[in-house]
Design goal:
single chain, about 525 residues, alpha+beta, Immunoglobulin-like, seven-stranded mixed sheet, six-stranded mixed sheet, about 25% helix
Length: about 525
């Protein structure tokens, strides 16, 4: 199909989704939120839709090789049940490897959903495969132009969403009312805490036409990060969860249930995908299964005393506690065994599509001058503590793998033992990064960390400081960092071939107007066997 046909396919029938607010879509009957697909295998794929009605409704899914459905080659029946917010998910098997299919759902009265397009994973010798990497899409901060730009492409085989697909905050809190883009409305108005809140927020996001189009055109594999639950989540709580918001396990259960209802994902927390003999893509869960509570610099130095001495002692003891977990023991074993099995099978690349940055970032000395001479006392204290932490060997983002150094060392060492060509795909920080990962003084792989779809990055907090200044300072303090962009929103195209990985960070012109124009692209490559980027 040519580009115009693809765009038409993705927009047909989506007019209702452009109506303002989730409430209208939630009150609608029938197919309310288009279609989506995910969890591709070589012979199967998961199909998703939502059909609202007074009662549970049995739908028929049809899969065909052509958009006119002249010959239906697969499908099945699935119920859009009220207890699952009228969503329906069906795994269709018996498909051919490495090919595109068209699909739709049909209601008992003959009503049809829009037509979606999906593809199975290749099997056996595979020369190339292209991923699109997204993360951190806060709807009120701006338009989902990154989704729109990607949806117009013809070279994407699979979309990877590495977390923060939506955000939990009430209206007026991240972004503030002044920062919010007019017309980018969310529901409910309050913070999402209960199951009904999470469901309605998904309905708001999935009503966005650019996101709906992306889902309709490409299969997606996705994993939550923290904001699908609440900020800085860990297995026992979260920064943005308090006693007035109920028991933490109940909130996690509600968030996970809504995620599994509204996303084209399997109802399992971690999984992997085999792309012929080219790549194994692992999708671990780094938030609420095994993660221990994040360290906080303020807590480390609480109580007064010699701050530098406290941080030095922490860096040499508690910080490197081998008992601290990011994944949990059972998930670690699954992932490490997976690395070994993948390389033993002859697979060329081991891709870990996970949520938080693995490369190390340290506060540069220059950061002292980034926040203005009239900064508040509490800001100055935090900057001073971060400077002392860096001198003690403590990175600044302790919510990332930098806060779990022993767990990271285990992962990278497992990749080295397996002789893996490791590529990590990451989101979370809202900025774009390229890291050479190492363990024990030896190369261990590369990290491709994507910029956000809309959420603000460094540029929002260090006004008056150029991207060049920030990146130069960060590269000076962080030896693993090979390149960064700390000012633009966008997404990454990752091209896997038998001997190279190419990363193309696409930066958008704007997110405050609804246009998919690009500002520019930065490209880097890595050669198989080197386990580091070729050039910056």
């Amino acid at each position: 199909m040519d580009r115009r046909q693809l765009i038409a396919l993705g927009t047909a029938g989506l007019a209702a989704l452009s109506l303002p607010g989730a409430a209208i879509a939630m009150m609608a009957q029938g197919f309310t939120h288009g279609v989506a697909s995910g969890e591709p295998g070589s012979n199967s794929v998961l199909l998703w839709t939502r059909f609202a009605a007074a009662n549970d409704t049995m739908l028929t899914a049809e899969v065909a090789e052509t958009a006119d459905f002249a010959r239906v080659v697969g499908g099945g029946s699935v119920t859009a049940a009220g207890e699952r917010d009228h969503t329906a998910k069906l795994v269709v098997s018996g498909l051919e490897p490495g090919r595109w299919y068209y699909y739709r759902f049909v209601a008992p009265d003959g009503t049809q959903s829009i037509t979606g397009r999906t593809r199975t994973l290749p099997e056996g010798p595979t020369s190339a495969f292209t991923l699109a990497l997204f993360s951190c899409s806060n709807l009120p901060f701006g338009w989902f132009n990154a989704y729109a730009h990607a949806a117009a492409r013809q070279d994407i085989d699979l979309v990877v969403h590495s977390g923060d697909y939506l955000y939990e905050y009430p209206i007026g809190d991240y972004p503030s009312l002044q920062q919010a883009v007019p017309g980018r409305d969310i529901q409910p108005a309050h913070e999402m805490v209960a199951l009904a809140d999470y469901r309605l927020r998904y309905a708001a996001y999935r009503s966005d036409p650019d996101l709906a189009r992306l889902h309709a055109l490409f299969p997606m594999i996705a994993q939550w990060d923290d904001h699908e639950m609440t900020n800085d989540a860990w297995k026992g709580g979260a920064e943005n969860h308090n006693d007035g918001e109920g028991e933490w396990p109940e909130r996690v259960a509600a968030a996970e249930r809504a995620y599994n209802e509204w996303m084209p994902v399997a109802d399992t927390r971690w999984r992997y995908y085999q792309v012929g003999d080219l790549a194994t893509i692992f999708l671990p869960e780094t938030r609420v299964t095994g993660r221990d509570k994040q360290f906080e610099i303020a807590e480390i130095v609480a109580g007064g005393g010699d701050t530098a001495a406290q941080l030095k002692q922490f860096a040499e003891t508690t910080y490197r506690d081998p008992a601290r977990q990011m994944l949990g023991a059972s998930q670690e074993k699954w992932l490490f065994d997976g690395f070994a099995a993948s390389t033993k099978s002859g697979t060329r690349w081991q891709v870990c599509a996970q949520q938080v940055v693995m490369g190390s970032l340290y506060t540069p000395p220059e950061a002292r001058d980034w926040f203005g001479a009239n900064m508040a006392d509490n800001v100055r204290r935090r900057i001073d503590a971060a400077q002392l932490a860096a001198k003690a060997g403590i990175p600044f983002n302790l919510d990332a793998w930098d806060g779990y150094p022993a767990a990271r060392s285990r992962l990278l060492a497992a990749a080295q033992r397996a002789d893996a060509d490791l590529v990590t795909l990451t989101g979370d920080t809202h900025n774009a990064w390229a890291f050479d990962l190492s363990e024990g003084g030896r190369p261990a792989g590369i990290e491709i960390a994507g910029q956000s779809v809309t959420s603000p990055g460094y540029e929002a907090y260090t006004r008056g400081i150029t991207d060049t200044q920030r990146v130069s300072a960060l590269r000076g303090s962080s030896s693993q960092l090979k390149w960064a962009n700390t000012q633009d929103r966008g997404y990454v195209i990752v091209q896997l071939t038998r001997d190279h990985v190419g990363a193309n960070w696409h930066n958008l012109e704007s997110i405050r107007t609804h246009t998919p124009l690009l500002k520019g692209t930065h490209s880097m490559t890595a050669t198989r066997g080197r386990r580091r980027f070729d050039t910056a």
